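User: Here's a structure from my thesis project, written as structure tokens. My advisor, Dr. K., wants to see whether a designed sequence matches the one we expressed. Can you design one independently, without my sequence as a hint?
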């Protein structure tokens, strides 16, 4: 049963030096055409389920004008929402306004996610993010003043020009923003980005690991729970939408380059605007074998501190994890922990999680 939905808005008012997401410069005419195509895609695939979570991401949803946002939300009214639906929208510091925030609140949005990344002028410049530390502070206070309390901020680290002291200062800055959720991202130098074209090299694995550790230590000592490899939340504020992904539950993905998991099919939409407008939405569709679905359940579950639920696994696949996979060695070495109800990777080994997951499924 599908209970979640991701909607991708691919427009941005500027392009960052590191980003390889599905995005393009905002253009009024393209936006108009995009919203028409998006509505057609939703009409084609959405089957009327009541949704527990909706997430509008990007790109930069807040780069749309107020009247375009009104059009977008008119389309999204077609999606039935449960009473307590978690409804998130991503906003960027440079184009969020009081009017847009008030409109989101009126439309039932109850969670705001802001890509802050850093407070340092030199780093923001390097990442090509067009705002200042002062603007970040005033935007967060505006979001709170309008009435949102469920707020996430993104923090980026492992940036080649960043010193470990810069990260320490950023962490204090982020803590002072006093929001209940922080997502952290270690910078990846992706193909087809400005940084890659400039031949920038990533920082060493040792520094990356030390930075990851520093973030964990500081945020957990301030009451944030490190509930997933890259995510921290105060009690009761874990992202319900993202938990859908990690619990291997189904979700719609609508929009350019969006991915989804519906009725046992994992799919990825085209990143070509022309194809999308021609209503050729899906680029890849894979019907999952039971084996692959089981492996996804394990790999996704092991990203979180709640781990893989033994009972859920048995109910879903009719087999016991310990009987099916050779995990005794991982348990004996302490890479994997077992409780009465679950298996999980303890925090101290999260930096090895990819290797542990592969050993778990026998690869
Ligand atoms: C694609 S962005 C969309 C949100 C919004 N447009 C923004 O710029 O904050 C979502 C998050 O992905 C992260 N991200 C994007 N590209 C990345 C990269 N190459 N390495 C690490 N994190 C990245 C950023 O932290 C960003 O906040
Ligand atoms: S990081 Fe965000 S704002 Fe920057 S180009 Fe990517 S989607 Fe757009």
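Assistant: Designed independently from the structure alone:
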């Amino acid at each position: 049963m599908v209970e979640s939905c991701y909607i991708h808005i691919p427009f941005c008012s500027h392009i960052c030096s590191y980003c390889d997401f599905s995005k393009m410069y905002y253009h009024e005419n393209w936006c108009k055409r995009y919203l028409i195509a998006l509505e057609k895609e939703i009409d084609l695939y959405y089957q009327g389920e009541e949704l527990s979570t909706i997430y509008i991401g990007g790109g930069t949803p807040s780069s749309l004008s107020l009247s375009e946002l009104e059009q977008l939300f008119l389309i999204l009214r077609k999606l039935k929402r449960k009473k307590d639906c978690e409804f998130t929208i991503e906003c960027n510091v440079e184009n969020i306004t009081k009017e847009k925030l008030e409109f989101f609140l009126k439309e039932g949005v109850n969670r705001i996610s802001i890509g802050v990344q850093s407070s340092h002028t030199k780093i923001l410049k390097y990442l090509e993010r067009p705002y200042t530390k002062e603007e970040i502070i005033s935007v967060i206070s505006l979001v709170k003043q309008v009435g949102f309390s469920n707020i996430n901020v993104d923090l980026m680290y492992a940036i080649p020009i960043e010193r470990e002291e810069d990260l320490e200062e950023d962490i204090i800055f982020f803590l002072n923003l006093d929001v209940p959720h922080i997502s952290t991202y270690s910078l990846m130098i992706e193909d087809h980005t400005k940084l890659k074209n400039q031949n920038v090299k990533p920082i060493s694995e040792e520094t990356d690991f030390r930075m990851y550790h520093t973030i964990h230590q500081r945020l957990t000592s301030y009451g944030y729970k490190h509930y997933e490899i890259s995510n921290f939340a105060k009690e009761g504020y874990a992202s319900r939408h993202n938990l859908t992904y990690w619990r291997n539950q189904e979700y719609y993905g609508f929009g350019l380059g969006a991915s989804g998991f519906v009725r046992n099919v994992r799919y990825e939409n085209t990143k070509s605007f022309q194809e999308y407008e021609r209503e050729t939405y899906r680029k890849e569709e894979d019907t999952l074998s039971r084996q692959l679905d089981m492996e996804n359940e394990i790999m996704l579950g092991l990203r979180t501190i709640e781990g893989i639920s033994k009972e859920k696994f048995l109910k879903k696949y009719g087999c016991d994890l310990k009987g099916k996979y050779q995990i005794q060695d991982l348990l004996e070495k302490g890479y994997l922990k077992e409780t009465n109800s679950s298996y999980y990777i303890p925090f101290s080994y999260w930096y090895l999680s990819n290797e542990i997951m592969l050993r778990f499924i026998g690869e």
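When you compare it with your expressed construct, this may help: Residues 4-245 form a domain with the TIM Barrel fold (CATH 3.20.20.70).
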